[in-house]
Amino acid sequence: MAVLRAHGIATTLPTGFEGRIFIRPAIGREVPYPVANFATFALPADVGDFGSGAVNLMGTTDIFTTLFEYGPESLGRPLFARQGMPRSLSPTDFRPYVLRRGLNGQSGSQWFFTEAGRPFTLYVVLGSHVQRSRLVPRVNDLIGALAVDPTMLPTGPPTASSASTGAPWN
Predict the structure, then answer these.
(1) Local structure of residue 123 (DSSP, 8 states)
(2) Per-residue confidence band for 88, with pLDDT thresholds at 50, 70 and 90
């Protein structure tokens, strides 16, 4: 199993997952924060924060997950009131209409929360809504291994860390 760690986010990737943790270059005056992408298929080099450029490549047994950090100005807002990352999702947490870009047959789930004093959203796309009972345990393996360090707030220029645990799971 590969260990992936950057910008105060860490995980041990379950077999068949690959991932990257990075801070993308700023656009205009924005201050970018860490983004972690995980997938059971090869992630293309240029993936949007919530999977554009990747989710259209998914097969029915694939999973795409983003852990996206927001700035400290989001702390204390009602959207981020939930304390702690969800660690176990259910097939009933997934709906086709939750997707940022609805692709036929896919299903998604999104959660806003504060973890270790840092505001995040967890966004998960399943390659098949019909197969969600089979895919959700794999999602839970991934999110159960995610850790956020409250003392590792991002600083410095954008960097990345990536890893893979081998062939995609079937």
Answers:
(1) E
(2) very high
